[in-house]
Amino acid sequence: MPTSNKKRCFTVMIVPHSEEATYSLRIPLFFVQIAVALLVLGVTGLCVLSYAYLKAAAEAEEAETLRQLSRAQQEEIDALAVETQKMLEQIYAVDELVEMVKEKLELEPGEIESDLQGGFTNQSANNNPNVLYAEEAQGTVRSYDSRSSSGGVMDRAVDNLSVLQSFVPERAETLDAVGEFVAQAEAKPSVWPARGRISSGFGVRRIPYSKSGYQFHTGVDIIGSYSSSIFATAPGTVTFSGYRGSLGNMIIIDHGYGYETYYAHLADFAVKAGDYVGRGQTIGYMGASGRTTGTHLHYEVHRNGSPVNPSNYMKKQ
After folding, report:
1. N-term to C-term CA, the chain
2. What pLDDT, on the 0 to 100 scale, is given for residue 272?
3. Worst-scoring range by mean pLDDT, 89-98, 113-122, 174-183, 297-306?
4. Mean pLDDT, to the nearest integer, of 310-317?
5. How many C-beta atoms lie closer than 10 Å to residue 124's C-beta?
6. Torsional sign, CA 188, 193, 312, 104
7. What would the pLDDT profile of 223-269 be if each residue is shown by its tens digit?
8. With 70 as the cut, is the pLDDT of residue 184 above it?
9. Cβ atoms 125, 133 nearer than 8 A
10. Secondary structure of the chain in the HEC alphabet?
């Protein structure tokens, strides 16, 4: 039996097929353990390197995908910059149209239509330094200067010239919208219906023909001379002209776009139901018909069926 301090080892025997002598190789167990440990370390290292390589390759692929996405987003940003520029120029043009309309609305109603038909294009165009106009025999062609110094955006601005020129037919739609805006502004009451002063305003007040109690006054009372002229405060169609209870002789005018005006306590009429009247046209005469404490005009403005404060629709005299 071997002693405990005898070194353990492996013996490798080589036996040739010939009659030559047999060879034996003694390998200490220590070297075998070292070889196995190195093999395990090598396999482990190979696995770690393979994992690191695969992870790096996946990250590289993801980075390339992100770069492609970034390039695509940058192209979208450039295209959006061009579209935004186009929209800004259109907004500037429309803003100038609106400003022009506001100026025109300060003129007489007859002047608005004639001025819109003439000189409309030049006035709305020449004030905008960002828009270039070239008048041709077939119509108007618009091109735009880019606000960006980026060559890509500039190239796209040139490439999209045909798209930007589509604003020409859109201008016709804008003119229609402006015409609608003018019509709506024309329908809005804006002048005093009579010469005089306001004796009772819109809102809660003490009942004038009673010693006590309050009522909501749905209009304004204007004191003036008996039989003085009452004027239409906006163009429209007379929908009622007759006697109505405590309001006496009354005229109602429908101006469109939800606007109606009431004129009550009249002495007499100058128009009848169905007549079309213009702003400032005489429609009746101040009186004291119906239930009233004296000569005056009771004037109401209705918007979408509800009475509103007429003072907000009466320009200062």
Report:
1. 135
2. 96
3. 113-122
4. 84
5. 24
6. positive
7. 999 999 999 999 999 999 999 999 999 999 999 999 999 999 999 99
8. yes
9. yes
10. CCCCCCCCEEEEEECCCCCCCCEEEEEEHHHHHHHHHHHHHHHHHHHHHHHHHHHHHHHHHHHHHHHHHHHHHHHHHHHHHHHHHHHHHHHHHHHHHHHHHHHHCCCCHHHHHHHHHCCHHHHHHHCCCCEEEEEECCEEEEEECCCCCCHHHHHHHHHCHHHHCCHHHHHHHHHHHHHHHHHHHHHCCCCCCECCEEEECCEEEECCCCCCCEEEECCEEEECCCCCEEECCCCEEEEEEEECHHHCEEEEEEEECCEEEEEEEEEEECCCCCCEECCCCEEEEEECCCCCCCCEEEEEEEECCEEECHHHHCCCC
Residue with tokens 């200062």: 316
Specify the amino acid at residue 24: S
Residue 257 has a CB neighbour count (10 Å cut-off) of 16
Residues 6+ apart with CB under 8 A from 25: 11, 12, 13, 14
Q: Does 92 have pLDDT greater than 80?
A: no
Q: Which pair of structure tokens corresponds to residue 17?
A: 């097929």
Reported pTM: 0.50
Cα 282 to Cα 191: distance, rounded to the nearest angstrom: 13
At 18-66, the pLDDT tens digits run 767 777 777 787 777 888 888 889 899 899 998 999 988 888 888 888 8
Residue 229 β-bridge partners: 285
Burial of 233 (0-12, 13-18, 19+ CB in 10 A): buried
Place of tokens 């004191």: 223
Residue 172 CA to residue 116 CA, distance in Å, equals 13
The rounded distance, in Å, linking the Cα atoms of 78 and 154 is: 9
Full set of structural domains in the chain with CATH:
86-187 (no CATH), 197-313 (2.70.70.10)
